[in-house]
UniProtKB/TrEMBL annotation:
The keyword Metal-binding is annotated on this UniProt entry: no
Name the UniProt record assigns to this protein: ABC transporter permease
Lineage: Bacteria, Pseudomonadati, Pseudomonadota, Alphaproteobacteria, Hyphomicrobiales
Membrane topology: Multi-pass membrane protein
GO cellular component: plasma membrane
Length: 327
């Protein structure tokens, strides 16, 4: 059985290799499919920080995913129509610059995660799950009743946003942007996990009382992790909306939160590349089985059940040694 670190390298190279082979073979659809898996994996990495390291079972991470998407949609739509978002008391205009949009998405989703965390982390167990779910559904229904930005029909963006020096309309170049971000975030999460903060967070997950007795505040540790987790998921939402050039209220739905959690369970909870493996498998099943049957989720459910029953560490736990990898 190979080490988890080596397995992680193989996964990263397979994803990169798939996109490059598709580019050589002139298969833009396959590149787009791989890009989608990369972006969803990024959302999973965000949730995995809260779930795997902090023990926070959140069914509301679609709130941050949707906020990131709408940050992109709102800014880009105003840039396209040349209308300001706000004129008084100061002027705020739209933009089609990806770095600026990412910054806004990260700030908006992290602030939202901080507020939700402040309220929900005072509870635990099923109550925490329900509070996070409630916040996500609140934003879902708010977006439906927001006619200025499409309401229930969503909001279309006609041209993908720009990145300095690159043609983002070229599928392989946009994939490169998303893949680079995923690798950077995974590296950052790895460093964070093995830092004193990460070790304290893991300790709070196992026994909050013991962490408190050594002078640390479990609430603050979990709140920080939840906020960072929300920021990462919000960034993924902005990229996902840019990929599709469309944003809709379904990004806020509880089904989206559930799918992100499925990525983690399939790949392995608290495994660095668990969300990457899970998201890739999910996209493969959706593409292959979705063409055979409208009820492909049944097969996904069977696979998920087998993973839960027979591979507690997810697919990575079944295929690689249990050591935790850095990157």
């Amino acid at each position: 059985m190979i080490s988890e670190r080596f397995f992680n390298y193989i996964v990263a190279l397979l994803i990169l290799g798939t996109a490059l082979v598709a580019w050589v073979m002139d298969e833009p659809f396959l590149i787009t499919l791989t890009t989608k898996a990369v972006i969803l994996a990024l959302a999973g990495v965000g949730l995995n920080l809260a779930l795997g390291q902090g023990g926070l079972i959140s069914l509301g991470h679609a709130a941050f995913f949707g906020l990131g998407g709408y940050a992109m949609g709102v800014l880009a739509s105003h840039a396209q129509t040349f209308t300001p978002l706000m004129e008084a008391p100061f002027l705020i205009v739209g933009t089609n610059s990806m770095p600026v949009i990412w910054l806004v998405a990260i700030v908006a989703s992290s602030l939202c995660a901080f507020v939700i965390g402040l309220l929900s982390l005072r509870t635990s167990g099923v109550y925490f799950i329900m509070v996070t779910l409630a916040f996500g559904q609140m934003l879902y229904y708010f977006s439906i009743s927001w006619p200025a930005y499409g309401g229930e029909d969503g909001l279309s963006i006609y041209v993908r946003n720009s990145f300095p020096g690159l043609n983002t309309l070229d599928p392989i170049q946009f994939f490169g942007i998303c893949f680079a971000i995923l690798m950077l975030v995974i590296y950052g999460v790895s460093r964070l996990t093995h830092s004193p903060f990460g070790l304290a967070l893991n300790g709070a997950r196992q026994n909050a009382q013991r962490v408190h007795t050594v002078g640390l505040n479990p609430f603050k540790l979990q709140l920080a992790a939840f906020t960072i987790s929300g920021a990462i998921t919000g960034l993924a939402g902005a990229l996902f909306a840019d990929l599709n050039r469309f944003v809709s209220p379904t990004m806020f739905s509880w089904q989206t939160s559930g799918e992100i959690m499925i990525f983690i369970i399939l790949g392995g909870v608290a495994r660095l590349y668990g969300p990457v493996v899970g998201a890739a498998l999910f996209i493969l099943l959706e593409h292959w089985l979705g063409g055979l049957s409208d009820f492909w989720h049944v097969y996904l459910g069977i696979i998920l059940l087998c993973v839960v029953l027979f591979a507690r560490g997810g697919l990575i736990g079944a295929l690689a040694k249990k050591e935790r990898a850095h990157v």
